[in-house]
Specification:
heterodimer, A: alpha/beta, Rossmann fold, Arc Repressor Mutant, subunit A, 2 domains, four-stranded antiparallel sheet, 8 helices, about 20% strand, elongated, B: alpha+beta, Beta-Lactamase, Heat Shock Protein 90, 3 domains, 12 strands, rod-shaped
């Protein structure tokens, strides 16, 4: 598995949430260390080389934001995903300002957590500048901004192309709705309607209708995944 | 600005009314003083003239016409009255004695008191106050006195009176403007603070000047009221933060377990569907919960980094791009139009969310196969964004209620939604100082958000960027 030998630090005080986090992360091939409070998180965070840290916003002892700030001050650049039970609008901004790299509001889907953790671990790996993206028999030409499936041109609106490009770039990974909105529409909130599903639905009709196999899959309660059959 | 406010001020109007009443009283008082002083002076002069006449009449009674003539001659030689005038004439009017050469025309037929201009006067000579008596044989005696001092006295009083009235009006005017300005200034400080509080939150306080007057007391009372409100708001926020935390933690666990069960192998199709539905319901509850928190947050203190210039036209295009698939599903046409960039200072996420809610409503509640229009316009009074559909619309009497939380119209009960969308729109509009108008689109509903013009400083920031 690609995640083998990747270590993750989970800083979480609620035992059951912590257990679920450890469970689902290690189920996906990560090696997980758990810290139950901020001070423990600080000592672990500065001592070992982690691929990603997930940090609860409200921790006993050293608070989540203070913890990230301290680590950043000490030069620890490990990507940090803040998990917050606060629905506060400002809180995301504060979290990112304190040095967090991503922000997820509790309760979250574990598939979304995994998608975001994966995205953060990929962040450090070098980005290759491609001009052509492929999945199955679908080809995206990033220069002419056109899509072909099985050699036949598919007409897409510019925004539809952006949606598809983001999904294909993350092929094999679950892309949560919120991440799609964030990267394609530059939005940082969860719209209360199913509008994004409807939008992706239209892209799917254009891509998958009357084809041998579907490429765009819906992951219930989370988002979407582009995947070619093995 | 302050001058205009001063002129409109109730205090100034009250002060002017007070000046008018006071001025009328002062004029009445001075008139009384003038009148009574003048009549006192006049009656003193009249008494002197009457006494002189009495002496002469006694001379006539004692020694007849000749005695009177002699007495008059003596009086003319050694005047007892200042500027005394005497004339004794027979019944035909011929002069018998005295220092007047002829009977003054004003008093030819008169008996008793009167006055006339001095004969052969040097210019500006004072008039003469005189009394005329007709004697037993039909001859007539006039005794008079130049009333120079009386007139001078009256003029002095008049001058003093006019001067003091003028002075009183000037001083009263200055004093009332000063008092008004001070009052207006203090009220303006309270107004400015209230506006600041409505705009940016409860952090502002009314300045207390330390004069311990009633304005300071008012300011102090309002400030302690604000302290109390702020304290209560902080408590409410603390409680809702705790509720959010304490409620979300078990919900997070519950969602985690459901998700695990959903992904676990060995579940039947039916169990799988049940768990999926439970997850979807739980997500619905969570979304409603976060919508509520979000609205309360926006309403409570606004967002600290609300205040970047954003283009409503760009937001409108992005929103319509997001919704055009949804519109297409209903067979609607979704049209967007603008007359160029429309900048407002605000928060893109919130404005996007608000507009998304309006467009979502227009598509959901509009006519299937209808037309939804999003129009952005800018003019010198600010920007506006207008979302219109051609569906059944909202009856006029319901329009004011639809911004309430969880309010749903009867005919929309079956469409998905939680009745929070327009509450969020209203909260976002308020945060941005925008006005919401709902109009009949005949047919359909038109919702208009009007934003105030962008302050010059912020506009400049955009042009430079």
């Amino acid at each position: 598995m690609i995640n083998a030998r990747r270590r993750i630090l989970v800083v979480e005080d609620d035992p059951e949430t912590a257990a679920q986090l450890v469970d689902s992360l290690s189920g996906n091939g990560y090696r997980v260390d758990l810290a139950a409070d901020g001070d423990d998180g600080l000592s672990r965070g500065r001592s070992a080389d982690y691929a990603v840290m997930t940090i609860d916003r409200m921790l006993p002892g050293l608070d989540g934001l203070a913890l990230i700030q301290r680590l950043r001050e000490e030069g620890v650049a490990t990507p940090a995903l803040i998990l917050s039970a606060l629905g506060d609008i400002d809180d995301r901004v504060r979290g990112l300002r304190a040095g967090g790299d991503d922000y997820l509001v509790k309760p979250f889907a574990f598939a979304e957590l995994l998608a975001r953790v994966d995205a953060l671990t990929r962040r450090s790996s070098t980005v290759i500048k491609e001009t052509l993206l492929r999945v199955g028999d679908l080809e995206l030409d990033l220069v002419s901004r056109t899509a072909n499936r099985g050699g036949r041109r598919i007409e897409l609106l510019p925004r539809e192309f952006q949606v598809l490009e983001y999904l294909v770039r993350n092929q094999g990974q679950v892309v949560p709705r919120a991440m799609l909105l964030q990267h394609v529409w530059d939005l940082h909130f969860d719209p209360t309607t199913n509008v994004i599903d409807v939008y992706v639905g239209r892209v799917r009709r254009k891509i998958d209708d009357s084809q041998a196999y579907p490429l765009i899959h819906t992951v219930r309660g989370v988002g979407f995944c582009v995947r070619a059959p093995c | 600005m302050l001058l205009a406010k001063t002129l409109r001020s109730t205090t100034l109007r009250l002060a002017l009314l007070a000046i008018a009443i006071f001025g009328a009283a002062v004029i009445a008082l001075f008139a009384y003083v003038y009148w009574s002083t003048a009549s006192f002076v006049r009656s003193r002069a009249d008494r002197a003239i009457a006494a002189e006449q009495a002496v002469l009449l006694r001379a006539y009674a004692d020694a007849g016409r000749d005695g009177l003539i002699a007495a008059i001659a003596q009086r003319v030689a050694e005047p007892r009255l200042v500027g005394g005038q005497y004339l004794f004439a027979d019944a035909a009017g011929a002069r018998l004695a005295g220092n007047l050469s002829a009977w003054p025309p004003a008093l030819v037929t008169a008996n008793g008191w009167g006055s006339f201009d001095a004969p052969a006067p040097p210019a500006g000579a004072p008039p003469v106050r005189a009394t005329v008596a007709t004697l037993g044989d039909g001859s007539r005696l006039l005794v008079g006195e130049a009333v120079d001092d009386l007139d001078a006295f009256a003029r002095k009083i008049e001058t003093a009176l006019l001067l003091s009235i003028a002075l009183i009006f000037v001083l009263a005017g200055v004093a009332s403007v000063a008092v008004t300005r001070r009052t207006v200034g203090r009220i303006e400080a309270i107004n400015a603070t209230s506006r600041a509080i409505m705009q940016s939150g409860l952090g502002e306080r009314i300045p207390v000047r330390g004069t311990r007057d009633e304005w300071d007391q008012l300011a102090a009372n309002l400030n302690s009221m604000l302290d109390r409100i702020e304290g209560l708001m902080a408590e409410v926020k603390q409680v809702s933060d705790n509720v959010a935390h304490d409620l979300r933690t078990p919900l997070a666990r519950m969602r985690g377990r459901l998700e695990k069960a959903y992904g676990a192998p060995g579940a039947t199709e039916r169990e799988h569907a049940l768990i999926g539905d439970a997850l979807a319901d739980l997500d619905g509850v969570l979304r409603m919960f976060s919508s509520l928190t979000r609205i309360s947050q926006i309403e409570a203190n606004g967002r600290t980094d609300a205040g970047r210039p954003v283009d409503l036209a760009e937001i409108a295009r992005a929103v319509t791009e997001l919704f055009d698939a949804a519109a297409e599903d209903k067979g609607d046409r979704l049209v967007v139009g603008s007359n160029g960039a429309a900048l407002v200072v605000g928060d893109r996420d919130l404005l996007f969310d608000a507009l998304a809610n309006l467009v979502d409503n227009a598509i959901k509640h509009g006519r299937a196969g209808g037309r939804v229009t999003v129009a952005v316009a800018r003019d010198e009074d600010g920007c506006e964004i207008c979302v219109a559909d051609d569906g059944p619309g909202i009856p006029a009497h319901e329009r004011q209620h639809v911004f309430k939380r969880f309010y749903r119209l009867e005919h929309s009960r079956r469409t998905p939604g939680n009745g929070l969308g327009l509450s969020l729109v209203a909260a976002v509009a308020r945060l941005h100082g925008a006005r919401i108008e709902m109009e009949d689109n005949a047919p359909g509903l038109r919702v208009r958000l009007r934003f105030p013009p962008v302050p010059a400083a912020a506009a400049e920031q955009v042009t430079r960027a």
